[in-house]
Structures are given as C-alpha cells and as structure tokens.
Amino acid sequence: MSRSRNTAALGIAATALAALGVMAPASAHGRELWGDVTVLPGREGIVEIAGYEGDALGAGSRLTLTAPEGAEVTETPLRAQDYRGRVDADGDSASYTWSGSAGARPWQGRSFPFVLAVPADAVPGTRLAGCAVRLTDARGTRKDRGTCAVTVGLPEPTLTRPASGVALAARPVTGGTAYPGAQITVRYEDTKDAGVTGQGPEPGTEVCTATAGRDGSWACVPATALPAGPGRLQATATFNGVAAVSEQIYVAVGGAGRHGGRQGLA
C-alpha cells in the first residue's frame, strides 16, 4: 500500500498539527520560567523549561518541576557536566541541581528537559492543571518561578478505505478509525497540484465528513464524484480544540492505479 505522511499536506494549518503527540518546543514566556508540550493519552513527552534571566546562582541551586494533575515526571534526561537530575519516588516532581562553580551561570541560555507521562484516559484537548516550576538557591530561597502548559493531544486518525493503488469508482467509500467522537474531514487533491505540499495556492478539496463512533470507527462517501485520474486522500480529525491528520493514500479514479512502497512528497 502506497502511503505518505506529510503533516503540511492538503493545506492543513501547522497550528492544527500540534496534537500529534510530538513535543512542542519551549520558549521564554516573558521573564518567567516557561515550557509547553502536547502529549497523547497514555504516552510520554518532553517539556523543556527555559527563560531564567536573573543573577548567577552557585552550587546547590536547583530547578524543580511539579507535575500537573494526573501526570507524572518519569525522567530528567539532561546529561551534562555538573547537573544532577532527580525524580521523586512518587513522580510528582523532579529537579536538576547545579554542583559546579559558584560564579557560573548554569540556568541562563539553555533549556532543561523533563519527561512527563500522561494517563491513558486523559481527554484530548484538555490542558492539565498544576504544572509549575521554581528555581531556588543553595539555601532554598526562591529566585524565579513559572508554569508549564501540558496539553493532551489527539491520536492520529487512520484512513484505511479506499484501498490505495487500485482503480476506484468515482464516489468510493472512505473510512478508518479515530478517537471516539472526533469530527473527521476527508480531503482530496490531484497529484499534479503543488498545493498538496502546503505551499501551493489551494488546499485540498473537502469531499466528505463523519463523526467517529464509540468504537472509533468512521465512514463517509463523497457527495460528488472525484476527478478521474490519480490523486491523494487524507483525513483530518478534530476534537475539543485539537487536531491530527492521517497518512495520505494515493488513489486512482477510473484508472490503472499507482503501486509502490511508502511514498514521500516533494
């Protein structure tokens, strides 16, 4: 089956793709410590904390992250000289402690990763409350604080019908699976249209919509006939303000079809 995963394809906005379960880069949020990440239910993601612009802090200074409600910190993956990571036994918090020279500036100009695990029953689109960070000196005096935004992402839908690479009728049944209750939009685009890369003038044409059932299955039939010849189909799922896209499939309406392995887009 010939498929292509191209998150920019069919004109889908990048902001709608933050729900694919991939870590969103942290950035300074004003002068406070800050980080953000989107994590799929039952998965882990890395939140990067950054943004300290204060005075130099010596040995024994510590950056601590408190996990949001329902989530756990599972790892402090930074492996750098003079930084010592530690995760509390219950996973409620984790920290990095600086053990280097007193005159160093260990917290400026870099980010600090924490691995967060989100429960399997977390609802996509939910922002988990209670994620907080603080920076203290060797005496435990707070020098800075901030927050981290942890959003539950939407699992990627699947597009399993129609079959890829075989000749199709003009209005083929499309279907697959998605998060229960998600709204599904199927889009089509001619393979000759440069818009399929997300850089052309036109997005993919909406051909049909559906809602995923309790078991996650969905199906719909194009309201109008698809153009004859080769093209590509892709499904977008939206739920509670977050979105995810399926892999693309190559289709051929009334033609010989297209065969081959997994394809990338130019």
Automatic annotation (TrEMBL):
Top-level taxon: Bacteria
GO biological process, any: carbohydrate metabolic process
Signal sequence, renumbered to the chain: 1-28
Record InterPro entries: Ig-like_fold
Key words, A-Z: Carboxypeptidase, Hydrolase, Protease, Signal
GO molecular function: carboxypeptidase activity
Keyword Magnesium: no
Name under which the protein is recorded: Carboxypeptidase regulatory-like domain-containing protein
Organism: Streptomyces aquilus
